[in-house]
TrEMBL record:
Organism, as annotated: Loxostege sticticalis
Protein name: Eclosion hormone
Major location category of this protein: secreted
Signal peptide: 1-18
Keywords: Hormone, Neuropeptide, Secreted, Signal
Keyword Secreted: yes
Nucleus found in the keyword field: no
Function: Neuropeptide that triggers the performance of ecdysis behaviors at the end of a molt. It triggers adult behavior patterns: larval, pupal and adult ecdysis, and plasticization during the molt.
Domain of life: Eukaryota
Location in the cell: Secreted
Length: 88
């Protein structure tokens, strides 16, 4: 009797385990990739907010599109934003 109960419990657990993974419909960013152009343009906007008139936001966004997001600006990294700074 105990063997039947244990086998039934194991079968139920396996079914519940399999059913749980079939119903999960998630898509983490790492598995699906990311849009580099979008991240680049968002960083341009962030730098424009941080640096104001000293930062050429439209020029940065054009660079994102031209290079397809390969050169993502980091607002605290002078080397990555130097081409978008002006002297006022």
């Amino acid at each position: 009797m105990a063997a039947k109960f244990t086998a039934a419990l194991a079968l139920f657990a396996a079914f519940a385990f399999a059913a749980h993974f079939e119903s999960v419909a998630s898509s983490p960013a790492i598995a699906t990739g990311y849009d580099a152009i979008s991240i680049c343009i968002e960083n341009c906007a962030q730098c424009k907010k941080m640096l104001g008139a000293w930062f050429e936001g439209p020029l940065c966004a054009e660079s994102c599109i031209k290079y397809k997001g390969k050169l993502i600006p980091e607002c605290e990294d002078f080397a990555s934003i130097s081409q978008f700074l002006n002297k006022l």
